[in-house]
Design brief:
The protein is an all-alpha fold. The chain has helices spanning 3-42, 47-63, 73-91, 104-116, 121-124, 127-138, 142-153, 158-165, 169-189.
Length: 191
C-alpha cells in the first residue's frame, strides 16, 4: 500500500468518525432535555445524580466507536441511559422509597383507562398514577415527550404548536394522536 493510499484510508476513517461524533452530538443536543427528564424521574428527582448520569451517558456515547445509523442514535442513547440507571441501582443495592418503580398492573390499567375515558384531575393527583405516567412519558422519544408536555401540561394550543413545528393544526392533531398511542403502548409494556 502506498503512502498516499494509506493517508486516504486514514482520512476516510477520521472523516467517518467525525461524522458519527457529529451525528451523536446533534441528536444529544436535540434529545438532551428528554434524556435528562428520564434520569430525573428514575432518580426520584435527584438532579445531582441526574447530572452525573448525563455526563456518564455523554462519555459512553463519545467513547463508543460503533457506527450507529443517524435515525437510530436517539434509541441507542436511550438504551445506554437505561443501562446506566440499572447499573446505578444495582451498585447501590437498593432504591430509596421516593424513587418511582414501574407497576405493570397499574400501568396496564391506566393504559386501558386512557383508551376508554378521560382521567379526572383527582386521579392524576395520586402519586402512584403520576409515577406511572412519568415513567412512561419519559420513556417516549423526545419529540413525542415535548409534544405531550407542551399540549397537556403547558396547555399550548394546537395552532401554536403547529406554528412552532411548521405544520398545520391537522398535522399536530395527528402527531398528538400518535404520541398518545405510543404512551398507551409504553404503559402497557412498562417493566
Amino acid at each position: 500500500m502506498s503512502a498516499s493510499s494509506a493517508a486516504t484510508s486514514v482520512s476516510v476513517g477520521v472523516n467517518a468518525a467525525a461524522r458519527v461524533a457529529s451525528d451523536i452530538e446533534a441528536v444529544f443536543d436535540r434529545c438532551g432535555d428528554g434524556l435528562y427528564r428520564y434520569f430525573v424521574v428514575r432518580t426520584g428527582g435527584d438532579t445531582h445524580l441526574a447530572d452525573d448520569l448525563m455526563q456518564q451517558l455523554w462519555l459512553q456515547a463519545g467513547a463508543c466507536d460503533t457506527c450507529v445509523p443517524t435515525e437510530r442514535v436517539e434509541f441507542w442513547l436511550r438504551a445506554i441511559a437505561k443501562n446506566l440507571i440499572r447499573g446505578h441501582w444495582r451498585t447501590n443495592a437498593r432504591r430509596p422509597a421516593h424513587v418511582p418503580i414501574a407497576d405493570p398492573r397499574l400501568a396496564a390499567e391506566l393504559a386501558e383507562r386512557l383508551v376508554s375515558e378521560e382521567l379526572p384531575a383527582e386521579a392524576l393527583e395520586q402519586r402512584e398514577i403520576r409515577d406511572q405516567l412519568l415513567l412512561a412519558l419519559t420513556a417516549l422519544p423526545n419529540d413525542e415527550q415535548v409534544l405531550l408536555l407542551e399540549y397537556y401540561f403547558h396547555e399550548v394550543p394546537q395552532a401554536e404548536l403547529g406554528r412552532r413545528l411548521g405544520v398545520g393544526p391537522r398535522a399536530v392533531e395527528g402527531r398528538l394522536y400518535r404520541a398518545r398511542q405510543t404512551l398507551r403502548q409504553v404503559l402497557e409494556e412498562l417493566e
